[in-house]
Design goal:
Length: 247
């Protein structure tokens, strides 16, 4: 578990620090990387999370309802997070009202989502082999990195001091490791029943569906055929399938 904790922390903290050295007007040049991450996360949700949920459940309709809950909970969170979960960079506009309170709301929304992601990796063996979900970890990392990058771009616009922005980034970076640590503690102590973790699993999978599909569709707002983006998306999905089958 220690390695997973470190991976979760640095997959958020390192890209956030990197954002300090990247000009704000260069942030949108990584859209193809976002497409890849979104396609990977979508594929992992389809071939890894959802089959596990429905295979273990005796009440698939209830599972479907919790997935819907997760989908719309993520929609609500994004009203406060400014879409940083799927790489939305902050746009400098004159009518934006910057302030610490806005930055705190973004941080809380992203940290709640990040905490749930981390706890997902601690799901018990009744759902999946405990701590043997490397393809799922990779999916979380792939979407967490651009989220941290986008978060720092937002924080730099809302906060006056870089040191404060770094402290906020540190809090966000710790959210997933804390979620994994607490989730593991409750799994090992049998504090929660497998049913509770199944519900959590379903809610987070709904969140993943929202994030991944938003990433893919938002990168092609003109709805025109783009072979490069399609190729990158197919590659991301293919690698997710390969990771699920062979790792």
């Amino acid at each position: 578990m220690a390695i997973n904790l470190l991976v979760l922390f640095f997959s958020a903290f390192a890209p956030g620090i990197l954002a300090l050295f990247v000009p704000q007007n260069q942030g949108n040049k990584y859209k193809l990387a976002l497409v890849f991450a979104g396609a990977y996360l979508f594929a992992i949700t389809i071939i890894h999370i959802l089959p596990e949920l429905f295979a273990r459940s005796t009440d698939p309709i209830t599972i479907g309802l919790y997935i819907l809950v997760g989908f719309f909970v993520q929609q609500i969170l994004e009203y406060f997070s400014a879409g940083a979960e799927h790489g939305h960079m902050h746009e400098h506009e004159g009518d934006h009202k910057h302030g610490k309170s806005s930055a705190i709301m973004v941080l809380i929304a992203l940290s709640v989502h990040s905490f749930l992601e981390g706890s997902l990796l601690a799901h018990p063996s009744t759902i999946h082999a405990h701590h043997e979900s490397m393809s799922l970890l990779a999916g979380i990392v792939l979407h967490k990195a651009p989220a941290a990058f986008a978060l720092m771009s937002i924080l730099l616009c809302h906060l006056k001091k870089r040191n404060t922005a770094i402290i906020f980034l540190l809090i966000f970076s710790l959210a997933s490791p804390v979620g994994l640590f607490l989730g593991d503690y409750y799994v090992e102590g049998n504090a929660f029943s497998p049913k509770i973790f199944t519900i959590l699993f379903a809610i987070v999978s709904g969140s993943f569906l929202h994030i991944s599909t938003t990433i893919i569709f938002e990168t092609n707002t003109s709805h025109s055929f783009n072979p490069k983006k399609l190729g990158v998306a197919i590659m991301g999905a293919f690698i997710a399938v390969a990771a699920e089958l062979y790792f």
